[in-house]
Design brief:
five-stranded mixed sheet; alpha+beta; three-stranded mixed sheet; 10 strands; binds dinuclear copper ion
Length: 365
């Protein structure tokens, strides 16, 4: 019985449909990760991307065209049962595609190099652009700290630092300089709609300039595999109207001025704690990123509780937990690395610490 479609036509049809599908999917997936027009400094990257994209279109069409042509002719040949012509060596073609590839790569190299230097050298040169705001970005396993007015000291009120985590808040229409570093391993600060990736490297500061026209929320994430919870190092950039930003910052500074951190104080008496509020502190400091219920590379709350009950040399469970939070290196749970940051006390006041301890005591009860 003769099939509805001959094999040749059925194959060409399937192949054609695949090409159409590719054409539909490909541009959206490419553009979705390209920089949008949110940040003024992304124009260079956008332009570079567009130029290289259109350079690649004829190459794509040529290669795909030759593949389709080869498939079509080989199908015909097989049906005719003839041997294809055997060709060996063609100097004109070989020299041609070597030179053409070299020219294309050279052009891409020169274009990329030009944009690379403007992006990472000229912009970092604060002689050209005065930052209206400098924010120090510190990546660590597994979150980001954003410090405002760190060690600037030009005005007395600058001594009051403001630190936020996870969400970076900045004003629209202003030159914002980000000074990006890491406190442990290498991370990468990446908000696709605003700018290219900038690595966060311990002991080294990289810079990123932002000047964003559109207020709104922009999402990104760490773009360098940095450990088990790398996926959790999300970045939210909230861009506010300048006046709204000033209000936000004033409120943050007022709160910071009142905040008295507990540091590594192991002796001052603590106020009465509240487990429910403590659960909020646990959340706010992202403790659960490492101390997960199922355990893993870090002690789960179960393990912490077991050690708390078996403690020796501590006056009370409260003391044991207080030390574990404020000076995590003093006693390390068996079989786990000592990598908890030693400065959580800077982010806790006496009340928050008391609440957190109360919460930890109730877990698993
Ligand atoms: Cu930090 Cu991935």
């Amino acid at each position: 019985m003769k099939p509805f479609l001959s094999h040749t036509w059925a194959r060409l049809l399937v192949f054609g449909l695949l090409l159409v599908l590719l054409a539909l999917v490909w541009p959206t997936s490419v553009w979705a990760h390209g920089p949008a027009d949110g940040g003024a400094k992304t124009d260079d990257i956008n332009e570079l991307f567009t130029v290289i994209f259109w350079m690649s279109v004829p190459v794509f069409l040529l290669v795909e065209g030759l593949i389709v042509y080869a498939i079509y002719t080989s199908i015909r040949r097989r049906n005719d049962e003839g041997e294809p012509e055997q060709v060996e060596g063609n100097h004109v073609l070989e020299i041609g595609w070597t030179v053409a590839s070299f020219v294309i790569i050279a052009v891409v190299f020169v274009l990329s190099y030009r944009f690379m230097t403007t992006q990472y050298e000229a912009e970092a040169d604060t002689k050209d652009v005065i930052p209206n705001l400098t924010v120090h970005v510190t990546g660590y396993m597994f979150d980001w700290d954003y410090d405002y007015f760190l060690n600037e000291g030009k005005n007395p009120e600058d001594d009051i630092g403001v630190r936020t985590r996870t969400k970076l808040t900045i004003p629209a229409d202003r030159n914002v300089l980000l000074e990006i570093t890491s406190r442990d391993v290498q991370h990468s600060f990446w908000v696709p709609d605003l700018a290219g990736k900038v690595d966060a490297i311990p002991g080294y500061t990289n810079t990123m300039w932002l000047n964003i026209d559109e207020p709104g929320l922009y999402h990104g994430n760490c773009a360098e595999f940095c450990g088990t919870a790398h996926w959790k190092m999300l970045i939210d950039v909230e861009v506010l109207e300048p006046a709204v930003f000033e209000e936000w910052l004033a409120a943050q500074r007022a709160a910071a001025a009142e905040f008295v951190s507990i540091g590594t104080d192991m002796v001052s008496p603590l106020p009465l704690g509240d487990a429910l509020r403590g659960a909020g502190v646990f959340d706010q400091l992202n403790c659960g990123t490492c101390h997960r219920p199922e355990g893993g590379n870090f002690p789960s709350l179960e393990i912490i509780r077991r050690d708390m009950d078996n403690r020796e040399g501590y006056a009370s469970a409260d003391d044991y937990l207080r030390e574990s939070i404020l000076m995590p290196g003093a006693y390390v749970a068996d079989g786990y690395p000592n990598i908890m940051p030693p400065n959580y006390g800077d982010q806790l006041d006496a009340q928050m610490l008391a609440d957190l301890i109360e919460y930890l005591k109730t877990v698993g009860e």
